[in-house]
Amino acid sequence: MKRFNNILVYAGTEHRESAVTRAAQLALDNKASLTLMDVVKPMPSVLGLMTDVAKPDEIEALVAADRRRRLMEIASEISDIGRPIDVCVAVGDAATEITRRVIDEDHDLVVKNADAFSPTGRLFGSVGTSLLRICPCPVLLLKPQLHGEFDQVVAAIDVESTDQKHCNLNREILEQAYSIARRDRATLHIVAAWRLWMEDSMLQHVGPEKIESMRRDHHARVRQAVDQLLQAPFAEANDIHLHLRQGSAATVIRDVTDEVEADLMVMGTVCRTGISGVLIGNTAETVISDISCSLLALKPDDFRSPVAPSGSVLTQEDEPLPLI
């Protein structure tokens, strides 16, 4: 089972305690190194014109130095985990700079507190949503009110896609969710949706009896695919519940998450287009806008971030499609 080796926690939020605590525990459990990071927003150009105290870049450097001192204090508070701890402060857009650090230093997990609920009811604000789109490694967004361990973990898998990329991602989702559930002694719920392709349109031509037969055959194939996924070590577990339901993926995932009162969802969030570039999946976009629990977001192995490493730029042929 894959382990994390180099964890980054974004400590720039107002309520960062749960993210830092969880990241420190993960570093201890995985024998991983840990980096505490903060990002300073660039000084607005209008303010730069209004001050004669110092140049904008000098003021930004002073703020960054202050943030670094604060991170050093936090690092000293968790130094008893006995793992290497580094601190990093960047200036720029938070999601972009976090992603660039991930690429430069080969981090394999980002931990961040989700934003408090916005007036629109969304738990994941602009920084979190951007990380779900552009960060190449898994991203763990923690509900601010979360304290302690998870109790109900939901793993959302796509059992109707049979290509190797989706199969690998499904396996990774299950392994990460299973690992977290075992660590926290939580109940693991595996949710998968299925439906017959163009059922309403075909009904007009083949009739209800044929549709029912096709539906049974398709369900049997889906169930076989699920059974193949749930091999060892999952087959021996007695605290796993399978929710295999007919319907749209977004609706099924949200329904199960609400029913079991999940406090963590593990799912894939990004699909790759046929040409250079990545888009957030429609199912993930819909689900993420509604859920109120923490989220561990995974991406396919061939995911390519639109963020360039430090000291380089994307060529025109490498430029991704717009993130919508």
Automatic annotation (TrEMBL):
<feature type="domain" description="UspA">
    <location>
        <begin position="171"/>
        <end position="298"/>
    </location>
</feature>
<dbReference type="InterPro" id="IPR006016">
    <property type="entry name" value="UspA"/>
</dbReference>
<keyword id="KW-0963">Cytoplasm</keyword>
<protein>
    <submittedName>
        <fullName>Nucleotide-binding universal stress UspA family protein</fullName>
    </submittedName>
</protein>
<dbReference type="GO" id="GO:0005737">
    <property type="term" value="C:cytoplasm"/>
</dbReference>
<comment type="function">
    <text>Required for resistance to DNA-damaging agents.</text>
</comment>
<dbReference type="Pfam" id="PF00582">
    <property type="entry name" value="Usp"/>
</dbReference>
<feature type="domain" description="UspA">
    <location>
        <begin position="4"/>
        <end position="143"/>
    </location>
</feature>
